[in-house]
């Protein structure tokens, strides 16, 4: 069925930085472009970063396997929370939503652009509180992605792997999400080569606590274009998708956005995550009804989806997804969050409430 701009999933205010800050991404000394000679790249000493992809495992301190966060039943509820997009862009502030729900998020979602500093403080705090971090790590523009595929950025990738491994607890890593969007400019071949190289380096570095989340838009599944970007079953831990309910698509419910994604996840036998979703509260009751239906649809139509992550971010017009929009929305949100189906797994939830 045709639904206008159902496939337009870019909505985040800070997300413009991923595309507009190309110069900064390319200029980082440890993040080379495809045209840069290897001698021009800043390479740390061999005792800091192994110089080659030699397939050997580096002995590491014990980490908690990434698969341990997959619920045996039900689904984790998480969010990216950013009500002031100008304050610390891309870094979630989950406490704002938790003060409303009086329940810790199962997943806290933050973003890191290519070439920008790794924010261990947010992820460390999430782990200490009992949340599982979801980190969306942008790969930069096509030129940087090609350099990564060619091995010019191995040192930077190894550094990221070691930083995430040092957390020791499970982390979901969404490497260069929504790769199917035309504005990304990615070629499927380059994307797959870069993904496989990054995934291999993480394995070499012993980052077994990091799960790789493959996440195009919902439309890539509907059109079948997802297959051209798929890096292979052995290279992916979770299958994800992004999709939003807007006035232009009649505030499409999950059942109209994600059935193709769900079928794909079942075929590839992977845990599934709706990594970004949101509903715009432009008409009375719309947001509340969407949340009520999402709660039912996940249990009855998509019972194998293991995580739902809401994009609780301030925007303008039909890109404002902030929760709750009103009392009815708050009631629907509380009903979803406190449903035992969506509570974090026992043992991961601190005894105290926020």
TrEMBL record:
Signal peptide limits: 1-32
GH26 domain: residues covered: 58-346
Keyword Hydrolase: yes
Residues the record marks as active site: 178 (proton donor), 276 (nucleophile)
Molecular function via GO: mannan endo-1,4-beta-mannosidase activity
Keywords on record: Glycosidase, Hydrolase, Signal
GO biological process: substituted mannan metabolic process
Top-level taxonomic group: Bacteria
InterPro entries listed in its UniProt record: GH, GH26_dom, Glyco_hydro_26, TAT_signal
Entry keyword Oxidoreductase: no
Family as reported in the entry's similarity comment: Belongs to the glycosyl hydrolase 26 family.
Name of this chain's protein: Glycosyl hydrolase family 26
Organism expressing this protein natively: Micromonospora pallida
